[in-house]
Amino acid sequence: MLEPPDIRVIYFIGLTTGRSSIMSVFPAWAEYLGLGCCRIEGIDLLARAPASAYREVVKNIDSNPRAAGAVVTAHKIDLLNACRNLFAELDPHAQLLGEVSAIGKRGGKLIGMAKDPLTSGLALNAFLPENHWHTGAAACILGAGGAAAALAVRLLAEEHPPHIVMTERNADRLDRVKNMRLGDIEFHHCPAPRDNDAAVNSLPPGSLIVNATGLGKDAPGSPLTDNAVFAESGYVWDFNYRGDLLFLAQARARQTERRLHVEDGWRYFIHGWAQAIAAIFEIEVSNGGPRFEELCAIAVKSR
Q: What is the phi/psi pair of residue 220, to 5°?
């Protein structure tokens, strides 16, 4: 069947896009938000794909008059490294973090945007008490990829920023964040889960522990062993909402014993896509209140 001539396409560039809830959620959101005639199309690329693969995808988006833009997940850093000269403009966070999570078009030119500092903050504010960092709690970010660096930027912007510990099994990836010189971050090269255990075990009460590694979704497993000791009265956040979610299961097994607040990545998923859609289609999408809760309800029904 031929598509309407005025249809607009938003592309989703990831690893396993067909498994994501957004493929069923987006059509319902598009109707609710009044986006008109549009659809979503997934593009699966292997992790660390060759630069030519990223450039082909971005050039096709640039030349396709129906393409409204794209949302980028697992390839945010590699895509920008391969395609930087194809963008007419990068927003300040994209320049700082060296990543692109949303691609838009303005006046026929490609704009690269990094929305994770905003969306991780919105998701964090939904469960972390106000003025929490005044308690002396720390933040431990397991992983040093794009989403991890973006969360660090958001935390360092706090009026009273927490002490941040960042761990990563890939030394080059850790050095990449170090070289950004974002602020006061304690870095640890942790090649094995037991090394992450040591970083987590030393955290003060009330600390935030975040799985930003992709383990549990993009690959099975957890960055921690079952021997990790979560901070008393701490906040445990898994960026993932689908997959084997082993890290989440480990936290829930200790939830009562350690008095933990355990959060999965569903709210982060909602904020991430809502704000990317807003940027690509140049519309306002509420990040709170009744209209945002309606977006959440629609997503749950369509999931």
A: -70, 155
